[in-house]
Amino acid sequence: MLRRRNLLQAMVTAAVGSGALVSTASRAALAPPPRSNTASTARRLPWRNWSGSQSCLPAAREAPATVAQLQELISASEGVIRPVGAGHSFTALVPTNDTIISLARMSGVISHDADSLQATVWAGSRLGELGQPLHEAGQALINMPDIDEQSLAGCLGTATHGTGASLGCMPTFVRALQLVDGRGELHECSANNNADLFNAALVSMGSLGFITQVTLQNTATHRMRRETHWRSFDEIIESADALADKHRNFEFYYIPFSGMGFTDAHDLTDEPVGSTEKLDPNEGVEDLKLARDLMQRVPKLRELVLGSYMRTLDSEVKIEQSWNNYASERNVRFNEMEYHLPREHGLAALQEIRKALESQHREVFFPIEFRYIKGDDIWLSPFYQRDTCSIAVHRYFEEDFKPFFSTIEPIFRKYNGRPHWGKLNTLTRQDFRALYPHWDDFIAVRRQYDPQGRFLNPYLQQLFGQTAT
Ligand SMILES: Cc1cc2nc3c(=O)[nH]c(=O)nc-3n(C[C@H](O)[C@H](O)[C@H](O)COP(=O)(O)OP(=O)(O)OC[C@H]3O[C@@H](n4cnc5c(N)ncnc54)[C@H](O)[C@@H]3O)c2cc1C
Predict the structure, then answer these.
(1) Is the CB of 206 under 6 A from ligand 1?
(2) Distance CA 351, CA 364 (A)
(3) CA 165/CA 387 separation, integer angstroms
(4) Quick one: which atom of ligand 1 is closest to the CA of 169?
(5) Residue 342's pLDDT is what?
(6) Is the CB of 205 inside a 6 Å radius of any atom of ligand 1?
C-alpha cells in the first residue's frame, strides 16, 4: 500500500547516512517458506501452516474426491482426524500425527438459483476460485476477507470476516450445509432442519465433522469503488466510527512509529472497471522493516522519516468487480493476534495498544489493522450478539511474537475481547466458556456427533475434550 518506495528508501538512507538499502540476502529472508503438497501417500509428508509456526508429521494425508470416499476414510482410519483447508490459521487447529484430510479436490459451484441469489458450493473451494463462476451465475459473495486463499470451510471454521459495520462474518452468509460426522454419517442441516447442529457447525473449527457442501446467500454481481486515504492517527481516531457508518466496507491501518495510517473504504458503484493497478501492501511492509532495521534506536527520527514520507502519498482508487476488489497478496509472512472487541471500546483499545507498542516494542514494524463487523447469533462466533471492532497485530514470521503479543493481549482482554479462532492467543477453555454463553450447548452437540473424539487433536482436546465443561 505504501507507494513511491524509492522516495522512502532515499529518505531512510539520507536519515541514517547509509548507502546500503535492502541486500539480496535480506530480500531472500523475506521470501515465504516452501509450501508442502497435500497428497495421499505412504511416505510421511510434513505439514506446516502458512506462517510456518505450526507443523506436524502426520501418518497419512488424504484428499478424497467424493463424499463417499471421505466417509470411507473416516470409517477406515484410526486415531485423530483433522480437516485442513489452506493452512492459513495460526492456532494449532490442524496439527496431528495421525490423519489430515483436505477437501481441496471437492471444489467449485454445484448449483445456483437466480431468484433467491443462493448457490450451493463445495466446501473445499478456495474463495478465489468462487468469484468467476459465481459471477457467471449473476452472483457475488456478500463480503470477503483481505485475502482469498482460504477454503470456504476453513473460513467457516474460524469465523473469518471482512470489514463492514452492517455486514456479518462469513458464516452468517450460510443458509444450509452438509456435514460428515465422526462416525462417517452424512447430515444436512439449516436454520429449519436440525437447527442445533446447524448453529454449532457454522463456527466449529472442524471439531464436529467435515463440512462438505455449503448453500450461500449471495448478492447480485456488483462493482466496487475502493478508495484509500492517508491520514494522521488523530484524524483517524476522530473520524473512524462515522466513516464506518458511511461506507459499505471500511477499515484502517495504523503504521507504528509514524503517527500516520490509511483508511480503506469500499462502496457500490456504477462506474466502469478502472485502475487495474494492484494495491500491493507487501512493498510497503518491506520498507517498514528497513526503517525498523536502520532506525530502531532513534524512534523520533523513525517517526519523522516515516510520517514525512506518508504525508506525500496520494489517495488511490480502484474500481473492480467486488470479488476482485477485496483481496491483497500477502507475500511477506507474519504471525498474528487478532481480538474482536465490543465496538464501543475499539478506538480506546487501539490508543492503548499504540502507546504500549511504541513505548515498549521498537522492534515492531507491521501495521495494525482495524475492522468493523456486525454481530450475529452463532454460538461460537466471536461476534455473538455484539457489533464488533477487530484489532490485529502482527510480527514478522522469523521473529519471536511472544514478547509483543504478551504485552498487547491483556489490553484486548481488559476490553472483554474474544480472540479470532484462527489467530494466536493464550486463552484456556475456562476463559472461552466465560466469553461464550452457549459454550456448553456447543460441547453437547459436538459430543453427539463425534462421540469418540476423533476430531480432537491436543489443542482441541484442551478446549472440548471429556474433561472440558
Ligand atoms: C495472510 C492471511 C490473511 C488473513 N486474512 C484474514 C481476514 O481478512 N479475516 C479473517 O477473519 N481471517 C483472516 N485470516 C485467517 C484465516 O482466514 C483463517 O485462519 C481461516 O480459517 C483459514 O482458512 P483455511 O482454509 O486456511 O483453513 P485452515 O487454517 O486450514 O483450517 C481452519 C479450520 O477450519 C477447519 N476446516 C478446514 N476444512 C474443513 C472442512 N471441510 N470441514 C470442517 N472444518 C474444516 C480446520 O480443521 C480448522 O479448524 C488470514 C490469515 C492469513 C495467513
Answers:
(1) yes
(2) 16
(3) 8
(4) 11
(5) 98
(6) yes
pTM, rounded to two decimals: 0.92
164: Cα within 13 Å, side-chain hemisphere: 18
Give the residue-averaged pLDDT of 390-402.
97
* Beta strands 99-102; 60-62: pairing state: parallel
Asked, colleague to colleague, whether 109-220 and 223-419 share their fold, the answer is no
**The C-alpha cell that represents 173 in the structure block:** 452468509
Q: Is the CB of 143 under 6 A from ligand 1?
A: no
Which ligand 1 atom minimizes the distance to the CA of 170? 11
Ramachandran area for residue 298 (φ above 0: left; ψ -120 to 50: alpha; else beta): beta
Is 432 in contact with 421 (CB distance < 8 Å)?
no
CA atoms lying within 13 Å on the CB side of residue 139 = 23
Q: Is the pLDDT of residue 382 over 60?
A: yes
pLDDT of residue 29: 37
C-beta of residue 150 within 8 angstroms of C-beta of residue 127: yes
The alpha carbon of 93 and the centre of ligand 1 are apart by a number of angstroms equal to: 10
Helix (H, G, I), strand (E, B) or coil at 185: coil
Confidence of residue 19 (pLDDT cuts 50, 70, 90): very low
Q: How far apart are CA 128 and CA 145, in angstroms?
A: 11
User: Domain residues of the chain, as ranges?
Assistant: 47-102, 109-220, 223-419
In the chain, what percentage of residues exceed pLDDT 70? Answer: 88
Looking at the domain 109-220, which fold is it?
3.30.465
Residue 154 Cα to ligand 1 midpoint, Å, equals: 4
**CB of 213 closer than 6 angstroms to any ligand 1 atom:** no
Report, in angstroms and rounded to the nearest whole number, the Rg of the chain calculated over CA atoms. Answer: 22
Question: What distance in Å separates the CA atoms of residue 112 and residue 216, rounded to the nearest whole number?
Answer: 9
Cα 89 to ligand 1 centroid, rounded to whole Å:
5
Q: Please return the burial class of 194, using the count of CB atoms within 10 Å of its CB with bins 0-12, 13-18 and 19+.
A: middle
Q: List C-alpha distances in Å: 419 to 288, 337, 434.
A: 26, 8, 13
Residue 333 CA: nearest ligand 1 atom is 1
d(CA 3, CA 313): 7
Q: Once rounded to an integer, what is the mean pLDDT over residues 275-287?
A: 67
Q: What is the pLDDT of residues 311-360, one digit of tens each?
A: 999 889 999 999 999 998 888 999 999 999 999 999 999 999 999 999 99
Question: What contacts 385, CB < 8 A, 6 or more positions away?
Answer: 375, 376, 377, 437
Among 158, 273, 261, residue whose Cα is nearest residue 206: 158
Cell of 144: 470477503
Element spanning 131, H or E: helix 127-136
The domain made up of 223-419 has a fold known as Vanillyl-alcohol Oxidase; Chain A, domain 3 (3.40.462)
Cα of 369 vs centre of ligand 1, distance in Å, is 18
